[in-house]
Amino acid sequence: MVENKRDWAVALKKIEQKMDWVADKTQDRIPYTTDSDGNYDDHSSLGKQIGEYYSLSWWTNGFYPGILWQMYQQTGKEKYRTYAEKIERKLALTLTSFEGLHHDVGFMFLLSSGADYRLTQNKQAFTRVIHAATILAGRFNLAGRFIRAWNDEGVDDRRGWTIIDSMMNIRLLYWATDLTHDPRFAQIAKAHAITVQNHFIREDGSVKHICEFNPETGEYVKSFGGQGLQHGSAWTRGQAWAIYGFTMSYEQTRHTEFLQTASKVADYFMQQMKGWSHVPVDFDQPNAVAYEDSSAAAIAASAFLELAAQQENPQMAQTYQKFGEQLLRQLLDDRCDFTTSCDNIVTHSSAAYHEEQHNYAIIYADFFLIEALQKLTDSSLSIWGQTKNSERI
Ligand code: GLY
Fold first, then answer.
1. Smallest Cα–Cα separation from 186: which of 200, 173, 172, 197?
2. Scanning 20, 72, 148, 331, which has the fewest C-beta atoms within 10 Å of its C-beta?
3. Beta strands 161-163 and 210-213: pairing type?
4. What spacing in Å lies between the alpha carbon of 3 and ligand 1's midpoint?
5. How many angstroms is it from 364 CA to the middle of ligand 1?
6. What 3-state class would DSSP assign to 111?
7. Phi, psi (5° rounding) for residue 334?
């Protein structure tokens, strides 16, 4: 059992030791998951064209360089910087291919070039961040005041689609305003967050995954089920994105309704967890179904810590802090592998309820686990949350 700050530091030390080995093994590959032998895969050498599914523009490709920057911050070892910079040069290629891009340029570029610029003031990283933010801002639909999620890719008409995960990506826009002092980026982020708040949050505090608006008039059309159990259910990772995203938008704008929304979803999340020993893929899935999502647990852990820090009421702060720490403690006790038998740390994540594979390694679970531990040991890079360093560069 992890008990106090010193124990969080011990856990982080174990990760540091493992990452020292993993980073040399992985070099400048860009992993998403591990193969059956526990080796990381690579999303930068799959022989795919930019824009194809699982190619270089795959939405999770910022998380591994993000982990490298977390380790650079943690240890100061130059090798992390070297590997991360190589990956960033690969990711930069995606900026020239609009067709392959999507709203997840936030995840892709905040964690890679954004962290790079934060730590090293690398001018090329700065340019990439602003370039990505401009692409994200360009996805804003003026009539509906939302950021379009994906391109059509020849499948559906997705001109009016937006998704809850976007609440994390808009952090890139707030950053861009901080970096350039041009308010347009933050204006778009706030407008989008208000639209999401108005249409995604259900009465009980649960959150929809995908909503469609008429791209011409901006009118709300309908919602879709997405990666959870079914339409109308509560996909846990989406709930976690919402808690974190609204907390972060509150920090950036001080618009109190955002904090109230984050708390409403957080209260729903805590209530639902009473029925589960580990975070399921969907709170509405049958209890007998053992599909878990440790990534949702890790994201929620970091989100609850962030939410706790924003509370004026000490009791609420304590409740959210304790819950975040509990989620983290459970991951460390039951769902982490600190050995060298596999490249990943967190086990038992699931990308989607209806996928064939469940309870496996997914890269973003590791990123958020480390982020939460760094918050608890005052060493966080504060990518989403309020920074303790010099944010306004
Ligand atoms: N952005 C998609 C997901 O959370 O799986």
1. 173
2. 20
3. antiparallel
4. 31
5. 10
6. helix
7. -115, -20
**Cα 364 to Cα 373: distance, rounded to the nearest angstrom:** 14
Any ligand 1 atom below 6 A from CB of 349: no
- Ligand 1 atom at minimal distance to the Cα of residue 352: 5
Show the 3-state SS of 219-286: CEEEEECCCCCCCCCCEHHHHHHHHHHHHHHHHHHCCHHHHHHHHHHHHHHHHHHCCCCCCECECCCC
Instruction: For residue 146, give the 3-state DSSP assignment.
Output: strand
Give catalytic residue positions: 104, 165
Residue pLDDT, tens place only, 253-288: 999 999 999 999 999 999 999 989 999 999 999 999
Q: What is the Å distance from ligand 1's center to 317 Cα?
A: 28
Cα separation, 137 vs 115, whole angstroms: 20
With a 6 A CB cut-off, is 118 part of the ligand 1 pocket?
A: no
Confidence class of residue 98 from pLDDT cuts 50, 70 and 90?
confident
Residue whose CA lies nearest to ligand 1 atom number 2:
165
**In Å, how far are 64, 217, 218, 237, 296 from 364, measured between CA atoms?**
8, 36, 32, 11, 9
The stretch 27-34 carries a mean pLDDT of 96
Residue 227 in contact with ligand 1 by CB distance below 6 A? yes
- pTM score: 0.96
Confidence of residue 344 (pLDDT cuts 50, 70, 90): very high
What CA–CA distance (Å, rounded) separates 135 from 345? 33
Asked if the model's pLDDT at residue 126 lies above 50, the reply is yes
Of 207, 176, 3, which is closest to residue 106 (Cα–Cα)?
176
Coil, helix or strand for 67?
helix
Report which secondary-structure segment, H or E, holds 163: strand 161-163
- Identify the architecture of domain 5-384 in CATH: Alpha/alpha barrel (1.50)
For residue 141, list its beta bridge partners: 146
Cα distances (angstroms) measured from residue 384 to each of 45, 113, 168? 29, 14, 8
What's at 201, amino acid-wise? I
